[in-house]
Amino acid sequence: MSSGNRSEAVDVQKSYEVRTYGCQMNVHDSERLSGLLEGAGYVRAPEGSDGDADVVVFNTCAVRENADNKLYGNLGRLAPMKTKRPGMQIAVGGCLAQKDRDTIVKRAPWVDVVFGTHNIGKLPVLLERARIQEEAQIEIAESLEAFPSTLPTRRESAYAAWVSISVGCNNTCTFCIVPALRGKEKDRRTGDILAEIEALVAEGVSEITLLGQNVNAYGSDIGDREAFSKLLRACGKIEGLERVRFTSPHPRDFTDDVIAAMAETPNVMPQLHMPMQSGSDTILKAMRRSYRQERFLGIIEKVRAAMPDAAISTDIIVGFPGETEEDFEQTMHAVREARFANAFTFQYSKRPGTPAADMDGQIPKEVVQERYMRLSALQEQISWDENKKQVGRTLDVMVAEGEGRKDGATQRLSGRAPDNRLVHFTQPEKAVRPGDVVTVEITYAAPHHLLAEGTPLAVRSTRAGDAWEKRTTEAAAKPAGVMLGLPGIGAPDPLPAAAAPACGIG
User: Fold this and answer.
1) How far is CA 190 from CA 161, 182, 268, 278, in A?
2) In contact, 486 and 25? CB cutoff 8 Å
3) Where is the MTTase N-terminal domain (predicted)?
4) What SS3 state is found at 379?
């Protein structure tokens, strides 16, 4: 990119918008895309621009049944806007771009750039090349060029951050296309991971979430089966790092040393999200999941023995091809035994490019729906019962930004307990900021949140709160920006039980 073009971008303040679909890995990638664009002189488009920007980037997901229809529908709505706005550029990246590299420009010839999951760092160069050559640039790398965390960033949170420790996946689950699109697992050097975390803490971040397609398989690429537990323990030695979480682990790699590291490292939170997918051994085998119900429930039992207060959540797919009523009852049994704090329950739908899409025994939609409703009702009651056990407990809640939709009307604030439960609490007399910590007593429980109605018992200002305040003050002095439309950064927020799956992670 020439210096002249870079100066032009700064002078006219060309704007960008990133639209993100899918999993936590895509969210993390979009932070990097934003950082790359801002490093090239772009500024975020004003709030409510809805595509009225100089560059619109789609970071796509390929695991949903109608992912391509959603993308092309959005691209179609931008076509007339691009006609009216000379110089506007549209880029498509992510998993769908990796999968459909040869068809995107054919179906939407007004797209300027197509890039894949392995070369997001090339976006500014590809945009510049498309502008100069006046033709679409399609560049899909077949292997990773740089870990997402090594690229410039524009993080959505001042107090919590994702940290990528690996990319890709060595599993072959029949419902998941992620390994085909993101490749085999590649681990990042432990020293690089810890250096990034230390740098983030120095900036004021107090909570990090270790991120990987199969996060606890970390070490398989470097030949150390205990590398993940060692990493957790190393995080415990970083001064100023208050909360460590990770997502998403796989039961196959969930070994006793990981449980011990979680229990013995104070800043590793008593929270575990571990996808079960099914409670039926027959269906687990058809899914190519390398564990069975007894193994999964055994892990849960060990986690609870080591951390009695741990909140455990999961993913479950209902109606996988070939699932009988007996298979489904095995899932219901496993849910009753595991007593998850919450479960993200999904109705199976075909993912293009996956072996399961072509399996015999596809379940009629009405049967899948009926089973889904029964499972959701069971889990809703278990979630409520488990939350009721929190009433009367005193919890340290990290104040969050934008988690309580009704906070303005109720004069409450919201945040996350150590086990990641959402807590709404009464505003204290002392002003608090996102990232600060408030000690409260839980007075009421609902299935998906806790309530602390009394005056907070204590308020602790933190460096994370200072970082949020500094960032907010600096942002107020700049032109209004627009959020990326992403989930909150930090520990992934619990989704409604009826939400559709975002990704094959786990």
Assistant:
1) 17, 21, 17, 33
2) no
3) 14-132
4) helix
Q: Which helix (H) or strand (E) holds 17?
A: strand 15-20
pTM, to two decimals: 0.81
Distance from C-alpha of 203 to C-alpha of 197, rounded to nearest angstrom: 10
Helix (H, G, I), strand (E, B) or coil at 171: coil
Task: Report d(CA 455, CA 430) in Å as an integer.
Answer: 11
Mean pLDDT by 10 residues, the chain (506 residues): 39 82 80 88 80 89 74 91 91 89 90 90 92 91 71 81 90 86 87 95 96 91 90 98 96 96 98 97 97 98 97 97 98 98 93 88 96 98 98 98 80 95 95 96 97 96 94 70 35 36 48
SS3 assignment for 218-245: CCCCCCCCCHHHHHHHHHCCCCCCCEEE
First to last CA, the chain: 39
Binding residue per annotation — 235?
Answer: no
Amino acid 148: pLDDT? 65
Return the ∠ at Cα 79 (arms to 75 and 85), rounded to 5°: 130
Whether 80 contacts 51, CB under 8 Å: no
Beta bridge partners of 276: none
pLDDT of residue 496: 34
Cα separation, 490 vs 477, whole angstroms: 25
Q: How far is CA 503 from the centre of its chain?
A: 9
Is 503 annotated in a binding site? The answer is no
Query: Do β-strands 412-416 and 394-399 pair in parallel, antiparallel, or remain unpaired?
Result: antiparallel
**Whole-number Å distance between alpha carbons of 97 and 92:** 6
Instruction: Pinpoint the alpha helices (H) of 389-423.
Output: 407-410
3-class SS at 415? Answer: strand
Instruction: Residue 217: name the closest of 261, 249, 193, 243 by CA.
Output: 249
